Amino acid sequence: MKHSLSRQLYWITLLYFALGFINITLAMSALACMVTPFVLAGKTGKKAWCTGYCPRADFLTLFGRISRKRKMPEWMKKANLKNLILSYFCLNLMFIGLSTTMVHQGQIPPIDRIRLFILFELPVALPQLIAFSSVPDWLLHLSFRMYSVMLSSTILGTLFAVFYKPRTWCTVCPVSTMTERMLKAGKIRTT
After folding, report:
1. Distance in angstroms (rounded) separating the CA atoms of residues 104 and 8
2. Beta strands in 28-92 (DSSP E)
3. How far apart are CA 98 and CA 147, in angstroms?
4. 86: which DSSP letter?
5. Which residues of 8-30 are buried (b: 16+ CB within 10 A; e: fewer)?
6. Does residue 3 have a pLDDT over 50?
7. Counting Cβ atoms within 10 Å, is residue 139 exposed (0-12), middle (13-18) or buried (19+)?
8. Is the full-model pTM beyond 0.85?
9. Which residues contact 7 (CB under 8 A, 6 or more apart)?
10. Statement: residue 19 has pLDDT above 90
11. What pLDDT, on a 0 to 100 scale, did the predictor assign at position 191?
């Protein structure tokens, strides 16, 4: 089923970022993109998400017309870059989990801004077209953190797509790397 839905799935990526403008708590839908690859791998024994269903991969193919289409440098293909990006992703998720717990416990206030690559806070607030009443602070915080992770990795993937080939990000994507390693280790069993 490789790319049978191509040129349609990129809308999911665009919709995801648009939903953040409607209400940031809708950013929690990112969890589906983080869990579904492993569910599909368990059912198929392959990286089915990466090869046929990933909305971000489909989005990145849109940059084919402006891409320099250069080969990915050898240093980017090596495990070191994959490990670095996977480590950063895991560190980011750890920060998200710990800070959300601290917000829930009332130890720190929620962060209500987008932060790119953990460090850089955007100087403008994300407009919220619909306000949901009584959203807990921890959910608000977690939603902004998830949106930040997704935006940061999409920006990085887009830069890779423009400077190299459109799906260069897929080579170093942490979800792809984890799925591949789990399949190789036999930790995902097909049903």
Report:
1. 38
2. none
3. 17
4. H
5. ebbebbeebeebbeebbbbbebb
6. no
7. middle
8. yes
9. 58
10. yes
11. 52
- What letters, b where the CB count within 10 A reaches 16 and e where it falls short, cover 59-79? bbbbbeeebeeeebeeebeee
User: Is pLDDT above 60 for 53?
Assistant: yes
DSSP state of 53: I
pLDDT for 28-41, tens place per residue? 999 998 999 999 99
Range 125-132 contact pairs with CB under 8 angstroms and sequence separation of 24 or more: 126/20, 126/21, 126/24, 127/21, 128/21, 128/22, 128/23, 128/24, 129/21, 129/22, 129/23, 130/22, 130/23, 131/23, 132/23, 132/25
Give me 15's structure tokens: 């919709």
Give me 71's structure tokens. 């080969």
CA 117 to centroid of chain Cα atoms: 12
